[in-house]
Amino acid sequence: MSHFPDHSPPSAGHLRDRLAQAGLRATRQRLVILESLLLLPGHPTAEQVHRRVVGQEPSLSLGTVYKALDSFVAAGLTRRVASAEGSCRRYDADCSAHHHLFCTDTQEIIDFRDPQLDTLIQEFFAAHGLQGFQPQSFSLHIIGNKLASDETIK
User: Fold this and answer.
1) 103 annotated as ligand-binding
2) Closest Cα to residue 77, out of 137, 118, 17, 29?
3) 99-151: which CATH topology?
4) Is DNA-binding included in the keywords of this UniProt record (predicted)?
5) Which end of the chain is flanked by fewer CB atoms within 10 Å, N or C?
6) Residue 116 carries which DSSP code?
7) With contact defined as beta carbons under 8 Å apart, do 34 and 53 qualify?
8) Going by CATH, does the domain composed of 12-92 fall within 1.10.10.10?
9) Residues 22-70: pLDDT tens digits?
């Protein structure tokens, strides 16, 4: 699912504002890469972003897409997410606190939010601590398989 339910492109002003808030210049390349990242469903790879942007910017290289995505990660506009097998980098434009479910059958990464689970994790670390380490945030990566709708546990 894209970050815009009707898959309509975000306005240029919206994209410029997001880049400015992150302290990045709104170059044409960054604008089309950010737009693609926001519109592509799921957690796209740099290659998927590149395939989408070359329609608008044919001279844009895959290396430029990687550099832009890395600058988005450094600026807090997106997060890097490993695939289920950890072999490729995928990107998540949703930087809010959430976890990921990795389906090994479909290679899909599904966002998962559960405030009760978050509270349990926070309470666990408050009670047990980690010697010489202070957690600032956390994100679980749970690997499994999606069940067919008739196999779903109620």
Assistant:
1) yes
2) 17
3) Dna Ligase; domain 1 (3.30.1490)
4) yes
5) C
6) H
7) no
8) yes
9) 999 999 999 999 999 999 988 999 999 999 999 889 999 999 999 999 9
